[in-house]
Write a structure and sequence with these properties.
The structure is a single chain. The chain is α/β, with parallel strands linked by helices. It is 43% helix and 17% strand. Strands 1, 2, 3, 4, 5, 15, 16 and 17 form an 8-stranded mixed beta sheet that branches. Strand 1 and strand 2 form a beta hairpin. The radius of gyration is 24 Å and the shape is globular.
């Protein structure tokens, strides 16, 4: 009996030890992929001016105006705008920022990002004039990051959607829910409804849907969220139609290309040889779809530039990487780990998707041209019918989308699609803030002091949003020198944290 007892004890110990080791192994690799092992940059090392600030003699863009208003003064008290106008009496205790020959716009908003686990990426948003982000796969630690920023740590404010809700079955889905936590799996409508109640209690700003939801659970989530008055956002599940979206109560679709994807399925699939007929199909239905989105008050995050990059990421990935500031991409996300392949050549999810041995180069080109032209047609129809579009990038959620920098590329992409510069700016300021129901995105008294001071007028060229002289975030004014220090610090931390040499890609 003693020997048997010892065998049982040692067997249990071995099982516990193996289970613990497996858990630790997966957690380390998940943390690596999420950027949690990247060398930390202390945000407190960067200097800012806080308190009473006056930006004087500056050209200001008010979202309702078609041009810049010259010779304006903006007074800031702590994190709020207290005066907007000309010729104020400025008390002696204000810090003066000379806005002569400069242009002031509201702080930019990226409505679709994935922060993962590195505060460094938040500094990249700030250095690019982004003062508010929408985290689309929220976790508990995002609330702690948001709390730190609200209490004075430099970084953008964070809108936090819930973990992504799935309805897979099987041990793999259950294990992912336990290990990774960004994706949570539910197998019955009652389970999903209970999760909506829990996420509401946890104070998530919205419920995030995955594309992997069955019809019953999809409608159950929307039904419960409507009762609790919490918005439902994200993907349209595979197998459901746009008519389901209109009927469900879902208030936002995470990508404009979701419409294109749905129509491609309805069309019977998009192939190079069917591209002309597909475009005709899109042109026939775009206006009616836009009218339905407007009638049901469904907003869309844009993520247009992401899909414009797919042909190059597919066929010429190394060349694409050399065209973007890859050195700022978090190495954990770029390199991946045991649990995720990452984005480097040979592992990038977009590489060799159409340009491969099973598809001729000519048909691959036709496919991408048709897919992106469909996105353009739909986007123009949405704007024509007054549908809310918020600028979003899917940064650190999709390969090639670098925190902060990607939004400026998105703004340029939207302008090329056909939006005016004012419409583009609106999508990244007022429209996004109103969709999030937060008091920012406009230069008005009582609004949060989130501003970007530019050296050039973005109403003349939308690319001038990159000509940043300074940023005001939560009432902190950060000058160009400190923004440069932020960028250099993150770049250096990334270089020190790499396990794979990417010099040939820079």
């Amino acid at each position: 009996m003693k020997l048997r007892s010892k065998i049982i004890i040692w067997s249990l110990f071995s099982i516990i030890a193996a289970t613990s080791a497996t858990f630790i192994f997966f957690q380390w690799h998940i943390n690596q992929m999420l950027g949690g092992n990247t060398q930390h940059v202390d945000p407190n090392q960067f200097k800012s001016t806080k308190g009473l600030i006056a930006i004087t003699n500056v050209n200001v863009w008010y979202p309702e105006e078609l041009s810049m208003t010259p010779n304006q003064t903006i007074l800031i008290e702590n994190n709020s705008i207290s005066y907007v106008g000309d010729n104020p009496s400025i008390p002696n205790n204000y810090h003066i920022v000379d806005g002569h020959d400069k242009y002031l716009i509201p702080g930019l908003i990226d409505s679709h990002v994935h922060i993962k686990k590195s505060h460094n990426d938040l500094l990249l948003y700030l250095a690019n004039g982004i003062t508010q982000v929408g985290e689309m796969t929220g976790l508990a630690h995002h609330f702690e990051l948001a709390r730190q920023i609200e209490q004075g740590t430099l970084g953008p404010n964070i809108y936090i959607a819930s973990p992504k809700m799935n309805s897979h079955s099987g041990i793999a889905a259950t294990s992912r829910s336990m290990m990774e936590q960004r994706h949570q799996n539910f197998t019955t409508p009652s389970e999903a409804k209970a999760a909506v109640r829990k996420y509401k209690e946890m104070r998530f700003d919205a419920i995030k849907l995955s594309s992997d939801l069955n019809r019953d659970i999809y409608y159950a989530i929307n039904e419960e969220a409507k009762k609790l008055k919490i918005p439902v956002i994200g993907h349209l599940p595979v197998g459901l139609q746009l008519t389901d979206l209109y009927a469900s109560g879902q208030s936002q679709l995470a990508h404009i290309d979701s419409i294109t994807h749905n129509l491609a399925n309805e069309f019977g699939g998009l192939y190079g040889e069917t591209s002309d007929a597909f475009i005709a199909h899109i042109q026939e239905h775009a206006d009616a779809i836009a009218q339905q989105f407007k009638a049901h008050n469904i907003a869309l995050a844009s993520t247009v530039w992401l899909h414009q990059t797919r042909p190059q990421q597919d066929a010429e990935l190394e060349s694409f990487f050399k065209s973007i500031p890859l050195a700022y991409q978090n190495p954990g996300w770029l390199e991946g780990s045991f649990v995720s392949k990452g984005c480097l050549p040979g592992h990038n999810t977009y590489q060799h998707r159409q340009f491969n041995n099973n598809n001729s180069p000519d048909n691959a080109k036709k496919y991408y041209l048709a897919y992106n032209e469909a996105i353009n047609i739909i986007t123009r129809a949405l704007i024509k019918h007054g549908v809310t579009i918020t600028a979003g990038t899917d940064s650190l959620g999709a390969c090639g989308m670098i925190a902060g920098f990607a939004l400026h590329q998105e703004l340029v992409a939207l302008q090329r699609v056909g939006l005016s510069n004012i419409q583009v700016l609106n999508s990244a300021t007022k429209a996004a803030a109103q969709w999030m129901k937060i008091k920012t995105g406009q230069i008005r008294v009582g609004y949060r002091a989130d501003l970007v001071l530019l050296n050039k007028n973005p109403l003349e060229n939308i690319a001038y949003t990159q000509e940043i002289a300074g940023v005001v975030a939560n009432g902190h004014f950060i000058n160009r020198r400190e923004l440069n220090r932020m960028l250099a610090a993150v770049k250096n931390a990334n270089a020190q944290s790499r396990t794979i040499n990417i010099d040939h890609l820079l």
